[in-house]
Write a sequence for this structure.
């Protein structure tokens, strides 16, 4: 388990904060705290190194077998629908384990995540979060895809005084983004009868699925 650098702030009013109890501190490896630094009920805990997890996935409307397709209750399954195979889009997504539920996404047609795409994406995030400080430094987590190991990407993050940690791919325990992809996939499956066979419609419903997630904090519980 990765341990956070932590400190108590009893009057903290902004930024990235979580409401936790004393047991959370003990779980993260801090066994004792001065009693005057917290209340017995809840504490305000600011993470000095909150995570931003990122990854990419392919998004497209699959060819469906109408004999075993989906339909509303009371309707025949063998009805006309938008089941043709569409273009494949790449979704590059990053989410933060902060109370603000920050998210950043890029979506483009054909082709995977190149080094140039990764640089553009990291620049987008860094422009949004600003430089790191001792009280507000981020740790970018990602898998070992070659474009993630781009030296310019690492230089951009470290120069901005943030951190990088690589993790195992497709592993939701320390890869919270996998939970997010699953939630978006479920949202698209529920609304597949509304998705038209074109990129504009697919992008619209994918972005809706991302926007509908109000908090990513539970996905970071095991990090």
């Amino acid at each position: 388990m990765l341990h956070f650098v932590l400190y108590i702030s009893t009057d903290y009013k902004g930024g990235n904060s979580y409401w936790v109890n004393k047991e959370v501190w003990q779980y993260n490896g801090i066994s004792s705290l001065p009693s005057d630094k917290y209340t017995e009920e809840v504490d305000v805990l600011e993470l000095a190194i909150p995570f931003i997890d990122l990854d990419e996935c392919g998004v497209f409307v699959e060819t469906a077998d109408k004999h075993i397709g989906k339909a509303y209750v009371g309707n025949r399954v063998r009805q006309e629908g938008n089941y043709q195979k569409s273009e494949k889009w790449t979704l590059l997504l990053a989410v933060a384990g902060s109370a603000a539920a920050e998210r950043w996404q890029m979506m483009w047609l054909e082709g995977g995540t190149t080094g140039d795409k990764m640089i553009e994406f990291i620049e987008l995030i860094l422009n949004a979060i600003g430089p790191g400080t001792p009280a507000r430094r981020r740790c970018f987590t990602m898998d070992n895809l070659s474009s993630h190991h781009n030296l310019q990407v690492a230089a951009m993050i470290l120069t901005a005084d943030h951190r990088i940690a690589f993790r195992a791919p497709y592993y939701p325990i320390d890869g919270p983004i996998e939970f997010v992809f699953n939630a978006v996939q479920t949202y698209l499956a529920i609304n597949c009868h509304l998705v038209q066979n074109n990129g504009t419609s697919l992008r619209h419903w994918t972005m809706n699925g991302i926007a509908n997630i109000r908090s990513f904090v539970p996905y970071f519980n095991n990090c």
Q: What stands out?
A: The mean pLDDT is 74. The CA atoms of residues 118 and 160 lie 16 Å apart. The helical segments are 22-27, 115-129, 151-159, 177-190, 199-211.
